[in-house]
Sequence to fold (297 residues):
Amino acid sequence: MDWDKLRIFHAVASAGSFTHAGQSLGLSQSAVSRQISALEEEISTPLFQRHARGLTLTDEGELLYGAVADVLSRLAAAEEQLKNIHDAPRGHLKITSSHGIGAYWLLPRMKEFLKEFPEVEIHLLMDDHELDLSQREADLAIRMRAPVQADLIQRKLFTVHYHMYASKDFLKQGAPKSLEDICNYAVVVYGETAGPEIKEINWLLEHYRKYFKPGSKGSIMRVNNITGILKAVEAGLGIGVLPDYVAVGNADLARVLPEVPAPSFDVHLVYADALRQSKRVAAFRDFLVKGSKDWHY
Fold:
């Protein structure tokens, strides 16, 4: 079926007369009538019952009208999206992440994003406890574990690798020869109030306690966020487990027992399915997904 004829048919069915349809389409009444007759001949089916008071659709006409109306509705929606596709993303964007990811991984990259999308206003919430995206406590989250809720969309960004680090001054007294020897050294670990996002967050503490025995010379210091642990390790207060995105390039630190595998975690970008069509969410998602290919440690 010819689309021009279908478009005219829809206008006639909506208006209820050839004359009114012609006025809306900018065509003469006779031109509209000829197009409808040609369409009816093409499909060998009458679409209208013609009478003195106007036109009514036949059963076949009702069927075709519903199909054409659906197509026109979809086209209108697509046209609207296409019109807006080049509009710059704008508005508030609330992002939540752990303290470490936010302060040491995300913030250094935000200048590039804001330069590209200056009309997006970022609100960054750095909290080691997860916020509820379904309740719109935040628009997006960067998490070191995959979400379990069905209404959340996730994209893996990269893998975080943790290792043991200590200050070079601290290691002048000697470095542990094995993991079993860690109980003879001061260690800096997460405090009990640290967020539960990562089950193995205190991997070092578990090994320290495993090998601790009477006469061991070690000690424990607890700090509740990654910045505190970093500063404590830099100050020579002990050995700590740090993500490589925090420690790499720090001239004051050195790896401890580099051959010992420490935990690693996949980092995910997460947002609610309801925000799938949000331009500011899509812009930030695409920015991180594109850049994450080069953001490995």
